[in-house]
Amino acid sequence: MYADLETSALEALTARLERDFGAMKARGLSLNMARGKPAAEQLDLSMPMLSSVVDSASCAAESGLDCRNYGVLDGLPEAKRLMAVFLDDIPERVVVGGTSSLTLMYDALVRLCLFGTDGCAPWSSLDQVKWLCPVPGYDRHFAIAEALGFQMIPVALTDEGPDMDAVESLVRDDESVKGIWCVPQYANPSGTTYSDDTVRRLATMECAASDFRIIWDNAYGVHHLYGEPGRQSRVLDIGKACDQAKNPRRYLKFASTSKVTFPGAGLAALAAAPENLDEIKRHMGAATIGYDKLNQLRHVRFLEDARGVAEHMARHARILRPKFELVARKLEESLSDVGGCSWSTPQGGYFVSFDAPEGCASRIVELAAEAGVTMTGAGATWPYGRDPRDSNIRIAPTLPPLHELDEALDVFVCCVKLAYARKLLESRR
Amino acid sequence: MYADLETSALEALTARLERDFGAMKARGLSLNMARGKPAAEQLDLSMPMLSSVVDSASCAAESGLDCRNYGVLDGLPEAKRLMAVFLDDIPERVVVGGTSSLTLMYDALVRLCLFGTDGCAPWSSLDQVKWLCPVPGYDRHFAIAEALGFQMIPVALTDEGPDMDAVESLVRDDESVKGIWCVPQYANPSGTTYSDDTVRRLATMECAASDFRIIWDNAYGVHHLYGEPGRQSRVLDIGKACDQAKNPRRYLKFASTSKVTFPGAGLAALAAAPENLDEIKRHMGAATIGYDKLNQLRHVRFLEDARGVAEHMARHARILRPKFELVARKLEESLSDVGGCSWSTPQGGYFVSFDAPEGCASRIVELAAEAGVTMTGAGATWPYGRDPRDSNIRIAPTLPPLHELDEALDVFVCCVKLAYARKLLESRR
């Protein structure tokens, strides 16, 4: 362990690491482990989809409706049926809309700000709206909350989901706490999957705000690396839990096919309680006549149903598994005797969460950039980009081909070691 | 003219019209002249577009970018170039977003409500927001204003556009008047095209509200029935006019390919001054990573450029001209000796505006429905659905095949005559 080294040994080690790092820089790499993008090989899996809607006959929905023309606000029945698979819900509670679940979430919160819900004051009329943010978390969630002027409150993400003791205590007496971000399965970036107990506590907890909302971003609900878990082991459905707890309007569920078919050209959808759905559709009906039904048809014909989705995701998993296993192996091999570091070994999703020794994350990301490896910015996994321990780094291993990922991880590991060694030396001066 | 008939003659006429109407009802028709939808024959024109993006090679943008993956917030450069044709602007001022220009307008107004602009208070924080609505106008524009709680003020639409004396007087001293809906070319439903003088006055008029916005919905900018007018005769560009008037932020331009390729599966876009664009993109960047670039590619490859768009729209016009000419001929032949009615003869767009004798519009639409012909609801062309004269009816002749349109117009004309004759008789009792 570096921390246990005599200072002279640490100095020698640092000098060697500086040389290694210099050699890496000299290679002039240009590699990227920053964003959770599918690899080109994964995108190829969905190419047949694009040929499924090409003549006037193939533009007809099951009902015979011509999908090339106006109409159908909340999605074709067959598209709702498909997206219900991703949302773990019934088609009747699904709205299919556009290509981005992020936009659906943004719009849902904008409506709560501007119009309020169920007789409660619009949030834009309140002095303050507070929002719970499990950390480490998803930077684009935090960006939405920041854009809407919410005061973000970090809550630790444990192995079972958000620290529910903390959450319960924050929501109980403070009416200005209006909601929480949740990625219940294979959370971004840690890969954490919420326990049943966590889901039940979220559904049943006493909230001062009657318009408290759980934004249930099930972005990775079918993104298993090791086969779909049995029905019993899936994340407990927040909808059923909220219904049982007699808090039926507390949740809004979101999902998309961005990492199933094509990011930016997939289907996004939400599911909610009937009362929330009515409200959402009423507002949506002012904003649009309907979403892209041709793209809905493409997806329905290509993915078909739960079985089709599972088979397709298994093909993704075959491409992704070696990448995640490489990350786990490299980090274990290279860092287990360094100390001070820890990382997640997710069973699905798109990220690995890496915790560097305190005060090292920014330096590591900077060093990696110098050596031609782009990482997600340090701090990105925290509200306002401020990680108080300067420790967490999100590793996104999906985009680069395996040999590039291998090179990028070599650089990353070297940067972790060097930053940590320098830090230790500084602290002894 | 009906109004000149002796009462006994009017009674005989009414009895005959009742019999005609009864015979029409007995035919059990089911025809629709309600919404501005393209006919299936028009949709067929764009089918080749759907086959233009089918393999990984064809998913590459001009830059080489893989359009199947995340990225590009405001549109591919080539998509901006294409949509600039519809927006009569330069690509640098264009944002391509989603499939619905209605949504782009709604979102733009939502942002002004929630965030404000340029240091002005968010509109949601004001006691009142007033909005100018040229009448007759587009019901979905009015629905947006109503949803956002704006108080709508009708302004007469003259042959040259909105009554500018009225507009200028309304905006001069009242800071709560925040904007105006404009469909500058082939307005919905009258087909009116704004004169250069109207455009200049909109751009230069003195507004009490520094955040006054002209929502320039150029929905029918290329939808000519009789060939594209020469460059000189196009509607004057509101952007250039506002720039010259030193009111560069006053306008937001919108267009889509909904009635060019596929409604609901087309491209929507906006153009604005650089300061407004920066603001819009900043907000958009919180809501999405980017829109459907595969659909952008499809459109670019199919429509290509201004010449391609003009040729494609000429093909639409060949289908639409006989329908609009049938409407004009039928109304002229059947109603010129009835009196009390007037209607527009548009040179483009999707609608004919029909003014029935005062107090007759609702009855006409009801009678037509009884006889199996669905019209746009009476009053729909006015804010809150309230036409004070109960006179205006929007005729949408594009969707039905020619022979159905012919039948539907026979019914409509009969209903106009009967409603008018009944009304005259009632007034004499």
How would you characterize this protein structure?
Two copies of one chain form a homodimer. By secondary structure, chain A is α/β, with parallel strands linked by helices. Chain A has two domains: 2-33 and 310-428, Aspartate Aminotransferase, domain 1, CATH 3.90.1150; 56-303, Aspartate Aminotransferase, domain 2 (3-Layer(aba) Sandwich), CATH 3.40.640. Helix content of chain A is 41%, strand content 13%. Chain A is built from 13 helices and 13 strands. In chain A, the strands form three sheets. The first copy, chain A, has an eight-stranded mixed sheet, sandwiched between helices. A three-stranded antiparallel sheet of chain A has the order 10-11-13, with helices on one face. In chain A, strands 1-12 form a two-stranded parallel sheet. In chain A, helix 1 runs antiparallel to helix 13 (402-428), helix 7 crosses helix 8 and helix 11 crosses helix 13 (402-428). The mean pLDDT of chain A is 96. The interface between A and B is large, with 58 and 58 residues. Chains A, B: It comes from Berryella intestinalis. Chains A, B: Keywords: Aminotransferase, Transferase. Chains A, B: InterPro entries: AspAT_Ic (IPR024551), PyrdxlP-dep_Trfase (IPR015424), PyrdxlP-dep_Trfase_major (IPR015421), PyrdxlP-dep_Trfase_small (IPR015422).
